Amino acid sequence: MPETAAPLWESLAAAVSSGWCPGLVAGVRINGRTEIFATGSLDLAGTQPMAEGTPFRISSLSKIIGGALALTLVADGTLGLDDDVARWLPALANPRVLATPDALLSMTVPARGPITLRHLLTFTAGLGIDYAATPYAAATRDLLWGPAPPAMTPEEYLARVSELPLAHQPGERWMYHASADVLSVLLPAAAVQPLNQLVQERISGPFRLTATGFPTGTEHFPTVYEADDDGRLREAVIYRDALAGPPQFESLAGGMVSTVPDFLHFLTALAKDTVLPPALRQQMTADQLTSPQRAGMAEMAGPDESWGFMTAVQVGLGAPWSEPGMWGWAGGSGVSAAVYPNGDIGVIFTQRFLGGPQDTFDLFWEPFSALRKGLR
């Protein structure tokens, strides 16, 4: 494959040369063969070249690792998908729910049922990002939105979350992000083990992911940039500082670090059912949302995307380079990864912070799709 992947690598090198970002690393696995490519430098000053093993802050790609980790606890019987999380997190017992999504926070009704692990994995727990101009959105913007991990301990985070009503009844509607941070508190409580140890013992260690986990402060990360209104790049200082050392809050929502070779290897192992029993992996990467639940997902990602367990799942035609049944996600720090139904995998880590829906990874996925078709 190396000689036939040249058009893809040339396309990525051209994007870096154009100033889209100072550097990037990408990896592909096609027909069972893997190749990694790095181009550019760690920063605009060109102080150090980008390398295949450069560590990146992977922001929301952490969610896929978090989903797999949670399901290892389901596989060994520590957790059940329909367990009430209040068994381990008593602060979340008997939640209250807003009378209507736009109600004042004081206007609540009892929840019709408990929050379960399934709700957290499918982002239907009733809490998360509200993009509307509501009292709930105003009250939760600094707590539930990300992209940086919560700037507090897990205990403080859980206490603050438990003081808030849910925006929707558990199981009613998909809401992004915050369920993964609650999951980050639940898993160590259920396993009676620190989260970083769980990741190491169940994911990083067994699959030899030598650079995957939570930041230690010793990593030499690429500088993350964001584009201003004129398209000029400036350093995303807040995001840099939030992940500069060991975090107060180890976040499966967006607080992990990895390399392209590590993440590609992880997705390969997951797709081959060596991380999880086949039935659980199939559930993880299949559509888990009802049509009413999917309304929240459609607001964010459009009608062709749904959600499994901590990963997006394509259910419609989608972009020309995509296929129904593919699964994966992207992260605000400029990272994206997906597994196609036939097992082909693409991963790209950049250092250009996503500014919104206008920022896409078509520069990778379009030539990658052409490469795949050419090799069939």
CATH C-level of the largest domain? Alpha Beta
Question: What spatial form do the alpha-carbon principal axes imply?
Answer: globular
Helix and strand element order: HEEEHEEHHHHHEEHEHHHEEEEEH
User: Largest sheet, if any?
Assistant: 7 strands, antiparallel
- Low-pLDDT windows of residues: none
Radius of gyration computed on alpha carbons: 20 Å
Rounded to the nearest angstrom, the distance between the terminal CA atoms is 12 Å
Structural class: alpha+beta
CATH architecture term of the largest domain: 3-Layer(aba) Sandwich
CATH level-four homologous superfamily name of the largest domain: DD-peptidase/beta-lactamase superfamily
Domain unit count: 2
Mean pLDDT: 94
Residue share in helix:
25-40%
Which strand order do you get reading across the main beta sheet? Answer: 2-1-13-12-11-10-9
Describe this structure in words.
- This protein starts with 5 loop residues before the first helix and ends with a helix.
- It is α+β, with helices and mostly antiparallel strands and 376 residues long.
- The protein has two domains: 6-61 and 211-374, DD-peptidase/beta-lactamase superfamily (Beta-lactamase); 78-191, Methane Monooxygenase Hydroxylase, Chain G, domain 1.
- It has twelve helices and 13 strands.
- Helix 1 packs antiparallel against helix 12 (362-374), helix 2 runs parallel beside helix 6 (178-191) and helix 2 packs across helix 7 (195-204).
- It has helices spanning 6-17, 62-75, 117-122, 135-144, 154-162, 178-191, 195-204, 237-242, 260-271, 278-284, 291-301, 362-374; strands at residues 23-30, 33-40, 56-57, 96-98, 108-110, 225-227, 233-235, 257-258, 305-307, 312-314, 327-331, 335-339, 345-350.
